[in-house]
Amino acid sequence: MTDATASTPILPPAGTERLLRIQEVAAETGLTTRAIRYYEEMGLLEPAARSDGAYRLFDASDLERLRFIRSLRDDAGFSLAQIGQLLEDDVARERNRERFRSTTDLDERRTLIVDAQARVDRQIATLEEKAARLTEMIDAARGRRRHLDAHMAELDGGRDPHPGSGAHPHPGGEGTDPSR
């Protein structure tokens, strides 16, 4: 493991963007300090700077990145490995964009485009896989909803087969709890 203080800049000059310590970042993002440190260990995040006391300091772009990581993890269900790949692809895309702009060599430009196409194809495959899983989850939830709607219709029709039991039969089954 490398010494983080060797590669991370010390405080920026006075008058520049406000930097936050890890506790403030945790409060802003809803993440724990432990999670933030873990993301740093995994290479998903690098603090903007270190204080003289070697405290991690974060800027607005770090907060944005952490919110993005949290959204991918919590809202979209991505694994940290998948998030790492997406973030690496973003860094590579920006690096290739700069190289593309700085060269007039057509072969190099073609190579950069082919590399970019491969990265985008990987992203599409990852996102399609995730979309397929989400579609399955949505379909299952819709099935549960239809099941509950059928029970509600049964109750609304005054046909409660097990009054007072709290359990209602699953259509085609005996004594299944409809809250499943």
What does this 3D model show about the protein?
The chain is mainly α. The chain folds into 2 domains: 1-75, Multidrug-efflux Transporter Regulator, Chain: A, Domain 2; 78-180. Helices cover 62% and strands 4% of the residues. The chain is built from 6 helices and 3 strands. It has helices at 4-7, 22-29, 33-41, 60-75, 80-102, 106-156; strands at residues 20-21, 49-50, 56-58. The chain has a 3-stranded antiparallel sheet. Helix 5 runs antiparallel to helix 6 (106-156). 8% of the residues are buried. Mean pLDDT is 81; it is low at 1-14.
Layout of strands and helices, then pairs:
Layout: H1 4-7, E1 20-21, H2 22-29, H3 33-41, E2 49-50, E3 56-58, H4 60-75, H5 80-102, H6 106-156
Antiparallel strand pairs: 1-3, 2-3
Helix pairs in contact: 5-6
Summarize the structure.
This protein has 180 residues and is mainly α.
Going across the biggest sheet, name each strand in turn. 1-3-2
Q: Quote the distance from N terminus to C terminus.
A: 47 Å
How confident is the prediction overall: mean pLDDT? 81
Percentage of residues assigned to helices: 55-70%
Percentage of β-strand residues: under 5%
How many domains make up the 3D coordinates?
2
Task: Estimate the global geometry from the Cα principal axes.
Answer: flat
Q: Can you tell me the residue ranges where pLDDT is under 50 for at least 5 consecutive residues? A: 1-14
Quick one: biggest sheet? 3 strands, antiparallel
Helices, by number, come to 6
Report the oligomer. single chain
Overall radius of gyration: 26 Å
Number of DSSP strand runs: 3
Overall SS class: mainly alpha
How are helices and strands ordered from N to C?
HEHHEEHHH
